Amino acid sequence: MAAAGAEARRAWCVPCLVSLDTLQELCRKEKLTCKSIGITKRNLNNYEVEYLCDYKVVKDMEYYLVKWKGWPDSTNTWEPLQNLKCPLLLRQFYNDKHNYLSQVKKGKAIIPKDNDKTLKPAIAEYIVKKAKQRIALQRWQDELNRRKNHKGMIFVENTVDLEGPPSNFYYINEYKPAPGISLVNEATFGCSCTDCFFEKCCPAEAGVVLAYNKNQQIRIPPGTPIYECNSRCRCGPDCPNRIVQKGTRYSLCIFRTSNGCGWGVKTLVKIKRMSFVMEYVGEVITSEEAERRGQLYDNKGITYLFDLDYESDEFTVDAARYGNVSHFVNHSCDPNLQVFNVFIDNLDTRLPRIALFSTRTIHAGEELTFDYQMKGSGDISSDSIDHSPAKKRVRTVCKCGAVTCRGYLN
Ligand SMILES: [Zn+2]
Ligand SMILES: [Zn+2]
Ligand SMILES: [Zn+2]
Ligand SMILES: [Zn+2]
């Protein structure tokens, strides 16, 4: 009976959708302690400034409205400047105020004088929104780094507008096959080389050449498949034919673009030419399902559909809702990333993995891009562009800014 009870309780267990902060706020509001969310008798009445919301001058004294960390907004209090020991938050407050004012300046609004005794409500509102956005983006960044299974860190940055984390996006590290599609993740062949660089290794078995040189750079032309060593091979993790499987090693930043291209991805470190940067992952669906979703999606959604057309056209990768950092990589008609088909533990030629390699040296801070029309085949002749009705409906103007820009995304 006891076991059944425990089983029943477990069955009813659902993940809490409320953030830890909100739960702590509730506890403090109700004066309850709860060890599992970190509210103890000791810290029940702790006060730490989370951010500053507003400013006023009363009798020549400066006051700031404080949002307390772990406390609800209703407990915000005005504190005199000399009580505040948070220089960084003060600087943030003034930066946000300055940014707001420089934005309205462009729109020729009236700018309040510096000797004002109170802030305009619109300014305070903006500062609070910015503070909340910063917290939400930090939380999202933490979550992405918890979920990712590769070495490189993921950063998130928005210095452009008030857009927060995307609401309908789930981070995954590898393909998520739709019901009915099976990804065989066990190779049927493994090599037994003592040195995979010099011997007839896995690529030779597949009838192709080894894709990499000794510096871990790709040396085969686009359109040629990559066959990496797999779990059946005798070689170890240092084998020169294991690159994509080790995942992204660069620290990348998902950032808000200032040219209207939404989120984009930039590298925070220098990337050598011909190096593996990231994999393109998403849901693996049948091409019929892709056609159906294509009808439902707006233009943006359609750009996440990636046909696996290496040898057949049975399957499509849809990264609209499930994906990794590649979900945020923008299109360019003159890109710095190039697509390759990769086979590792799955040797089914209908289901290659998609890897993005740098086409040239990419400097720290540069945005990463790939050509959405070059998905899969690596050929950009007009035949290769998909003109199926679902994807042709409306053309999307390209904002890549390249000299060679073709003008449209699709
Ligand atoms: Zn080998
Ligand atoms: Zn091998
Ligand atoms: Zn090997
Ligand atoms: Zn373009």
From TrEMBL:
Domain SET: 250-373
Primary subcellular site in the record, as a coarse category: nucleus
Residues the record lists as binding Zn(2+) 3: C196, C229, C235, C239
Binding site for Zn(2+) 1: C191, C193, C196, C201
Keyword Manganese in record: no
Keywords in alphabetical order: Cell cycle, Centromere, Chromatin regulator, Chromosome, Differentiation, Metal-binding, Methyltransferase, Nucleus, Repressor, S-adenosyl-L-methionine, Transcription, Transcription regulation, Transferase, Zinc
Annotated positions binding Zn(2+) 4: C333, C398, C400, C405
Gene3D superfamilies on file: 2.40.50.40, SET domain
Annotated family: Belongs to the class V-like SAM-binding methyltransferase superfamily. Histone-lysine methyltransferase family. Suvar3-9 subfamily.
Protein name listed in UniProt: Histone-lysine N-methyltransferase
Organism from which the protein derives: Castor canadensis (American beaver)
